[in-house]
Amino acid sequence: MAEEPKETAPGFQNPVAGFAVTFKAMFKKRLTEQYPEQKKTTAPRFHGRHQLNRHPDGLEKCVGCELCAWACPADAIYVEGADNTDEERYSPGERYGRVYQINYARCILCGLCIEACPTRALTMTNEFELADSSRANLIYTKEQLLAGLDEGMVDSPHSIFPGTDEQDYYRGLVTEAAPGTVRQVAVSKGELHQSASPSGAAEDEGVEA
Ligand code: SF4
Ligand code: SF4
User: Fold this and answer.
1) Exposure winner among 19, 75, 190, 200, fewest CB in 10 A?
2) Where does [4Fe-4S] cluster 2 bind (predicted)?
């Protein structure tokens, strides 16, 4: 047996019925956000721009292991590790991240990289304003991603806290830079040693990188 057609609104009501949704929406509270004049606070665990963290004395937590790069589904991270030396030390252990880049033209802010990081060197901030009109500007370098210096920190490179080892850093035994800690010369970045000339004036001494 053929199904009976459903009852529809009388023909003259059809043009008006179409506006029902419009009229209902007119009296609802507006949800328009006045961005960028008024910025909304993000959720505490919002996935925003990354940050490379430091130990409490200013040395870097990244050990250049590349696990974050391998975990990234968008191939957005590039890492090159290198060996620390006593004269130029960036992290407490053997290795550090010499080159670190995140390409925000690729990154989908999924957070898999921070899960993969064994030292909690990599975390995410709440900063979300990452748009740019240039692809080159969207590749953030280590210098841009590295956390700033808090009280008690000395910028890397510098020597390890005397009498401690790498494990002590992870046990939380190092809480600030040792008194008298000074930043070393970053020879690998092209910085030059300063040495006093016989005349007493300081002059640059070129050092092989
Ligand atoms: S947040 Fe996701 S996409 Fe972005 S760099 Fe990390 S793993 Fe890759
Ligand atoms: S951020 Fe973490 S996972 Fe990535 S290279 Fe550094 S230590 Fe390894």
Assistant:
1) 200
2) 72, 107, 110, 113
Nearest to 57, CA basis, from 203, 161, 201:
161
Alpha-carbon distances of 14 from 7, 20, 26, 130, rounded to whole Å: 13, 10, 20, 47
For atom 3 of ligand 1, which residue has the closest CA?
Answer: 107
Residue 20 in any domain: the answer is no
* Ligand 2 lined by 64 (C-beta under 6 Å): yes
Question: Which residues partner with 196 through β-bridges?
Answer: 202
Amino acid identity, position 205: E
In a domain, 44, yes or no: no
Q: Find the 44 Cα to ligand 2 centroid distance in Å.
A: 23
Cβ atoms of residues 50 and 124 within 8 Å: yes
Domain count, the chain: 1
Q: From ligand 1's centre to the CA of 94, what distance in Å?
A: 26
pLDDT tens-digit profile of 4-47? 655 555 666 777 887 888 888 888 888 888 999 999 899 999 99
The pLDDT confidence band at residue 208, using thresholds 50, 70 and 90, is very low
- The finding on whether 79 has its CB within 6 A of some atom of ligand 2 is yes
Ligand nearest to C-alpha 100: 2
Residue-number span of the structural domain to which 127 is assigned = 50-189
